[in-house]
Amino acid sequence: MSRLRIKQRTRIYLGCEGQSEQSYGARLGQIAEAAGLQLHFDNDVLQPGGGDPLALVQLAIRRIREKEARRGIFAFRSILLDRDKVGLKPERDAQIGQLSCRNRLHLIWQEPCHEGFLLRHLDGHQTARPITSDLAEQALKSVWAEYQKAMPAIRLATRIDLQAVRCACSVEAALAAFLDQIGFTPNL
User: Is 81 helix (H, G, I), strand (E, B) or coil?
Assistant: First the structure.
């Protein structure tokens, strides 16, 4: 009698500033599933983080250690961070690179925020670089009127598909590198 072997999914940690990023990670998981990839995204909302990038990185590292102690090592570790708070505390910002490198935590900076990052997923808007979070949200809503913060993944699916991820990867090097590392290449 032969035993059916179920292939283990590759565990990926994705630290998220808030529920919007968590939904985005869930959407990536749905796209990967549809493509037949054996990936499991652990989309971890890092609260309370207060938008301080260093505090978010430190919290992500603590959470990774806790989760790995319970369920085993993550194959890949990444975090989505808004860039709009960088520069407010330069002495803290200077610690982010070394700390993330020591802990194998890949940084995906969202310029200036998640809404600006999402905007670059939409066809024809890859070069859009709003300079403030308010302008990014306005620009996104001008081309995606139904967009709301913390939209569930199922609603993101109306605009964020594999082609949208490919569009974003053409201008978001950190996202492209992360997806390439986990085997979720934009060329699927």
Answer: strand
* Beta carbons of 43 and 84 less than 8 angstroms apart: no
Helix (H) or strand (E) holding 78: strand 76-82
Contact (Cβ atoms closer than 8 angstroms) between residue 42 and residue 11: yes
Phi, psi of 10 (to 5 degrees): -75, 125
CB 89 within 8 A of CB 52: yes
Is residue 87 within 8 Å of residue 51, measured between CB atoms?
Answer: no
Q: What is the distance between the alpha carbons of residues 187 and 43, in angstroms, rounded to a whole number?
A: 23
The tens digit of pLDDT for each residue in 117-127 reads 999 999 999 99
CATH 3.40.50 fits 10-181, yes or no: yes
Q: Where are the beta strands (DSSP E) in 26-159?
A: 39-45, 76-82, 106-110
Query: What is the per-residue pLDDT across 97-113, written as a single tens digit (0 to 9) for each?
Result: 999 999 999 999 999 99
Q: Is 54 exposed, middle or buried (0-12, 13-18, 19+ CB in 10 A)?
A: buried
User: Alpha-carbon distance 59 to 54, whole Å?
Assistant: 9
